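[Automated response] Your request has been received and processed.

Submitted sequence:
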Amino acid sequence: MTRERSVERTAEFDPTGTYRYWLGRFWARDRPNLALVMLNPSRADHQHDDPTLRRSIRFAQDWGYGSLIVVNLFAFCATSPRSLRLATDPIGVNNDAYILRAAQGADRVLLAWGNHGSFRHRDRAVLDLLTPQTNKLCCVGLTRTGQPRHPLYLPKDSRPIPWPLSAHAEMTPTQ
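Generated structure:
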């Protein structure tokens, strides 16, 4: 599959641009779609990709998907996880609805938020939200603290595995 094919790009932000709730990339609508749940939005929008998004698209294409929907534990746009701690409301008012919509519409849901997901116990809240979608959940390995690994620094030959249900109970808080 060529990576140079036309890609439709979508994004949904709040009116102020402070929160990004949804990011979509569609290149082959006849193929299954992948939802990706990461930590927080960085710079990607409806026109531009950032390194994490480019890497995630490559994985999705290599795994046979035709689209990628990105949602986040925290919808607050920040280039550093530390910035989330300074935000009054890092989650965002509508964020859970977008996460649920992405998961319900996906063929598979890749959890990939890395070590900072336990901030405000958000990892557990989102896993509880996704309980009806448990059969779709997967990850590409776990960190030492039991969090799903972030895609940016994974080996190119990484493959998704089913989400280990025991990981939910074993996650280590990093407050």
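Summary generated for your ticket: The longest helix spans residues 51-62. The chain has five helices and seven strands.
If you did not submit this request, please reply to this message.
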